[in-house]
Amino acid sequence: MKIEGIVFDLDATLVNLGGFVNWRAAQRQVAETYLACGCSEEAVKRCNERNLFDMLNIMEEELQATHPQDEAKQIQGRAYAIIDVCEAQGVDQCQLMPSCMEVLEWLRERGVKMGVATSNSQEVTERILELRDLRSFFSAVVGRTPELRMKPYPDQILACFRMLGVDPRRGVVVGDSVRDVKAAKAADIYVVAVPARFTRRETLEQAGADSIISSLGELPAVLSSLLP
After folding, report:
1. For 209-219, what is the mean pLDDT?
2. Lowest-confidence range among 53-57, 115-119, 128-132?
3. Contact (CB, 8 A) for 179 and 61
4. Does one domain contain both 213 and 106?
5. pLDDT in tens, 55-97
6. What is the mean pLDDT of the chain?
7. Is residue 228 in a domain?
8. The domain boundary residue, chosen from 68, 88, 108
């Protein structure tokens, strides 16, 4: 395989945003929003036992099963808007992950098309990329939207490859989480995992990661054999 494009996750892969976001407060407010919109208390309680992004995916399925499509999207949009506000509070403080800029420069020099597919909001992602001088590296950015299922579904990743004009069979996904790995493998795409401090290597192996590296700086060594 000779790769033509790479789709990166954002948080804990390219930048550290999550370390500056109050995710517990975001999840509490999202749960309250679902209840205020008339969602089943039992369903919200069950989903609230998962992490925030798993909760969003499960509640989306619940909404699709119990509400008209337009109403389900509106409710999910309100939940997303809550998280948008919480994420925005971390934008100014977020930092590049080690070797991020060097790796992106290395890829650009070799003509690899690059995109970002993330569970973070589109607006926040764009702001971070601009603020940290990363935007010029990426021809496609796909953030959180009610129109696309989030990881571990492959929807965002496939949309990003379409925007890049790259056949996913000639692409690579790079991310830090089990959701990233599962999303890539659901579309049969080669995936490199870079475990964050809260991600266990064993869970990435079990999810099917093709390569696991300890830091982003090791990515060129993994990709060298795949590049034209």
Report:
1. 96
2. 53-57
3. no
4. yes
5. 999 999 999 999 999 999 999 999 999 999 999 999 999 999 9
6. 94
7. no
8. 88
| Number of domains into which the chain is organized | 2
Dihedral of the alpha carbons of 86, 92, 98, 101, in degrees to the nearest 10 = 120
Same domain, 181 and 216: yes
pTM above 0.85, yes or no: yes
| Chain centroid to CA 226 | 23
Both structure tokens of 179: 């959701």
Task: State whether 11 and 79 are in the same domain.
Answer: no
Domain span at residue 83 reads 22-88
Residue whose C-alpha is closest to residue 13's, from 224, 218, 189: 218
Whether residue 211 sits in one domain with residue 102: yes
Residues in a beta bridge with 223: none
DSSP-based three-state secondary structure for 58 = helix
Buried b (16+ CB within 10 A) or exposed e, 191-219: bbbbbbeebeeeebeebebebbbeebbbb
What mean pLDDT do residues 22-37 have?
95
- Identify the H or E element spanning 35: helix 23-36
Which residue in 133, 189, 180 sits closest to 161, CA to CA? 189
